[in-house]
């Protein structure tokens, strides 16, 4: 199995899609309302938290099922997933949201 066939698995794609959705949510919210810190967390902040935290079971399942079978391809996909999480978290921490 190559990395492309490993990436086709739902347990590999869902965390990537969730990270991209979280990044798009932060960017859209910042574009619409600015980067000012709010007194109370809004629904965008809660959605971002759910998208980021919701990835954990998918990533864990992927790691448990794929690393023993195809370690090199699985570790590359796990690296991509980790990079996507950092990309979604970066605007939040850089802008102090």
Mean pLDDT over the full residue set: 89
Q: Helices and strands, in N-to-C order?
A: HHHHH
Number of strands: 0
CA-to-CA gap between the ends?
41 Å
Helical residue percent band:
over 70%
Shape type: elongated
- Assembly state (oligomeric): single chain
The fraction of residues assigned to DSSP E strands is under 5%
Rg, Cα atoms, Å: 15 Å
Question: What is the number of domains?
Answer: 1
**What structural category arises from helix and sheet content?**
mainly alpha
Number of helices: 5
Main beta-sheet annotation: none
Which residues form runs of ≥5 with pLDDT under 50?
A: none
Descriptive notes:
The protein has helices at residues 3-7, 10-33, 43-53, 55-66, 71-95. It has 97 residues and is mainly alpha-helical. The chain has one domain. Helix 2 (10-33) runs antiparallel to helix 3 (43-53), helix 2 (10-33) runs parallel beside helix 5 and helix 4 packs antiparallel against helix 5 (71-95). It starts with a helix and ends with a helix.
